[in-house]
Amino acid sequence: MGRAFVTDGQWRKTLAVVRSLGEKGIEVTIGENTRLATSLFSKYATKRVVYPSPKTRPDTFIDYLLDELKETSYDILFPMEEETLLLIAKNRERFSKLTHLLIPDYEKIEFARNKKNIIKKAQELGIPYPKTRAIKHIDEIGEVSKEIGYPVVIKPQVSFGSYGIKRARNEEELISKYKEVHKIYPFPLIQESIPQEGEAFGVSALFNKDSQLRAVFVHKRLREYPVTGGPSTLRESVKNEKVQELGLRLLKALDWVGVAMVEFKVDPRDGEPKLLEVNPRFWGSLQLAILSGVDFPYLIYRMAKEGDIEPVLDYKIGVRCRWMLPGDLLAFFSNLRRLKISPGFFNFRTNYDILSLRDPGPTLGRALSIFSLLSQREMRRLLFRR
């Protein structure tokens, strides 16, 4: 029987990893900086540890995790959030002596999480992207208005989810909102707004240590929160050769290692899928890929044990998965056309990221974790900023 350590027990994607490995008899240790975390309530958690916060005590976190890996033999370490991923990547040599680690180099992760870098790379590769400008002074906004037109989206160069993203319909709003975002996320990008009716896709992929493709999966967003653009709350497995080719072209050009997801939105004005960003880590809708037959966590575990695997390039289409609490509930109440949305909100016969009769504990853990999140000053700041 194998053993894995998974960080960041708070999040849905972590729960997906825990369930994937646990169902196959692999012992899973879950770490988080609080006991009130979603995944810690899973029946598949063999061991639960509370470690120092990687945000506020990064050095202590690294020492704690290294000590845990020295005391207990683990086949693999799964860093789930960007903060932990970056810390572990920065200390890659120390961790690689103790366990298997399939992640890119620190510099590569930093490059990929910066939207300005990714837009530049897309330009080099001929991958379509929304008109984008990075300005150095507020006086340049007038030029941007003429070049891009309205509405526009103001995006931090580095952020996660929909944090820091604001929309402006005219120059007055752009100046005001740009200054607001700039205070927290210096020199954000100004980007044309793709009409909301355009379909949105995610291309998820896994590469081995030699940057060779070992798995790919495409999903389409059906709902998201915030409804103007944010994490998906309902999504479906699909085939889309065009967005798959574009996403893989970008990741191959980056010589990627491990997992990543590339996001696109189809511009209904010309039918072209436009690149939005790269998530250089596991993504929130991971459970859908697993249910569709691309079990990314287990494939990585097998690579740790076997050295390499045969590529997994096929999967079931039409599978749906829902982030019900609180994601899709918030999407429902914030949508003025909530009773006319399709698929309908009250169609509960689907799969869920967290809700599960076979593993009900995380639903309680998710409810309790809200208190934990609100007790953390940094998380409160992010939530209210959103």
| CATH fold assignment of the largest domain | D-amino Acid Aminotransferase, Chain A, domain 1
CATH homologous superfamily of the largest domain, by name?
A: ATP-grasp fold, B domain
Specify Rg, calculated over alpha carbons.
20 Å
Mean pLDDT: 93
Number of domains: 3
Contiguous low-pLDDT stretches (5 residues minimum) are 382-386
Report the top-level CATH class of the largest domain.
Answer: Alpha Beta
Largest sheet: 7 strands, mixed
Shape by Cα distribution: globular
- Structural class based on helices, strands and sheet pairing: alpha/beta
| Order of the strands making up the biggest sheet | 13-12-9-10-11-14-15
- State the helical fraction: 25-40%
Output the helix-strand order: EHEEHEHHHHEHEEHEEEEHEEHHEHEHH
CATH architecture field of the largest domain: 2-Layer Sandwich
Number of helices: 14
The total strand number stands at 15
| Through-space gap between termini | 43 Å
Strand content: 15-25%
What this model shows, in words?
This protein is of the alpha/beta class and 386 residues long. It has 3 domains: 3-101, Rossmann fold (3-Layer(aba) Sandwich); 131-192, Dna Ligase, domain 1 (2-Layer Sandwich); 200-355, D-amino Acid Aminotransferase, Chain A, domain 1. The protein has helices at 12-22, 58-71, 82-90, 92-96, 106-112, 115-125, 141-148, 171-184, 241-253, 286-292, 296-306, 324-334, 361-375, 377-385; strands at residues 3-6, 27-32, 45-50, 76-78, 132-134, 152-155, 166-168, 189-192, 200-207, 213-224, 232-237, 258-267, 272-279, 320-322, 351-352. A 7-stranded mixed β-sheet has the order 13-12-9-10-11-14-15, sandwiched between helices. The N and C termini lie far apart (43 Å).
